[in-house]
Amino acid sequence: MNIRIIQFAATAALLLVAQVAAAAERNVCFRLQLRDERVQCADTSEAGARRGCNSGGYVDMVGHQIEVWDKDWEGDDEYIGTWYIGGGGSQCVAFEWENSDYDKGEANPDLYLRYINRVNRTGYSHYVEVRGVNTDNSAASVTSWRNGQSGDPERYVSMNCKANTTCSVFGSGTLVPTNDIASDRGLRIMALDSAQHTLQALGEIMDTSVRLQYPGQTDCPTSCAPDRDLIKITRTRGANGSNVTHELGHVIQMQEFDQDWLRDDCSRGGDGHSLDSLEHESCATTEGWGNYVALVSWYEPNNSATVPFGWGRNFETATLGFATCSDNAHNEIQTGKAFWDLDDWNNEGGSGAASGDDDRLAYASTDIVTGWRQFDDGSDNREDGEDGADGVNVRDYWGNNSGRFTAAGAFETLIDHNCLQAQVND
After folding, report:
1. How many CA atoms are closer than 13 Å to the CA of 359, on its beta-carbon side?
2. Listed range (8-17, 33-42, 169-178) with the worst mean pLDDT
């Protein structure tokens, strides 16, 4: 499939002027938004927030894919192409019509859009997508604006779109796939938009597209990532922005390991894990990594004013979760904070049991992610399937990257500042 970027309206207008002599393009503009009711996501008012959510309002569907079709009444409609939305505000699609394989001799097309439940990173050079699917992994139903509404069947159709003109699809308003925020469709679209945030931050180093199953199957009651190309989001968490991005963090780690599982033994704290529980080091590390990816998806670490919040917790504060240093080595908030500290530009002093051990450095998010590639396949120490409940852990990650993160203070930032030195190192 040829996925093309939708130009900003102003840019498209400039391109149109330059290309008139070369070709008779059609240019159709619209604005696509989703009704937003998400929680656990960065609001646009927060310092350092990336493209924010707007609970109770609407947000532009950046990175979402749409199809453009020509509506016919005496035969089949013609598919023109697929584009992704490259920015906010009014967007425009430019395409050839005459002598194409879809014009069928028609003088001018009657254009409408279809939303197809797929998202990708904008401005990519290495393409991956997240695709929304149903519980049985079948394709989710598309949203089509072909048929308008009762008494106004062409309400959302740009009729008789002529060459070298700018046509509009519902120019007086905004296209919204659904306003029913409690429906599976509405919640799936919110989950897909959350997933797009992860792709925007880290998608360039991913190598496999991902299915987002919503609602997730019953074998996954709190959402999960069973393998490197699937996340299952439970019905109650479709509107939880951090839950979706956390699960994609597991997918990314699996892709870096080139395998479909992770060492993640969460049995120490009972059935499952929580932000406050003390777990085996593999669980604390794997779940903490998911927390870090969730933070990077919503917040910009290269802004010293950023204060990232996830699940109502401040992941920037130097305050340790536990007064006893060794307890922090078994907690997923602290390991998530450790990866964030290695990334962020706000370098603060140590606190409590970590007093004197400062957050001193900032590495690129992509370098931190690709650090997992240093693990060899196998079950021995510092391999991607290390035997035992405490492997793979953050100390293993550091040991495999000691030649990568070489600046003075890197170990202090990642390990000592967060009291992770008690993790098993053999």
Report:
1. 25
2. 8-17
Q: Do 62 and 164 fall within a single domain?
A: yes
* Residues facing residue 115 across a β-bridge: 66, 143
Reported as a single tens digit per residue, the pLDDT across 280-310 is: 999 999 999 999 999 999 999 999 999 999 9
CA distance 414 to 335: 9
Q: How far apart are CA 13 and CA 395, in angstroms?
A: 54
Q: How many domains in the chain? A: 2
Integer angstrom CA distances of residue 87 from 235, 332, 364: 29, 34, 24
Angstrom distance (rounded) from CA 362 to CA 344: 5
What is the token pair recorded at 257? 């390991």
Residue type, 51: R
157 lies in the same domain as 62: yes
**Whether the bond into 392 is cis, omega within 30 of 0:** yes
In angstroms, the Cα distances linking 41 to 19, 55, 179, 197 are 41, 9, 20, 10
pTM for this entry: 0.94
Judge contact between 281 and 268, C-beta under 8 A.
no
Is 158 in the same domain as 278? no
CB count in 10 Å sphere of residue 102 = 17
72's tokens: 């016919």
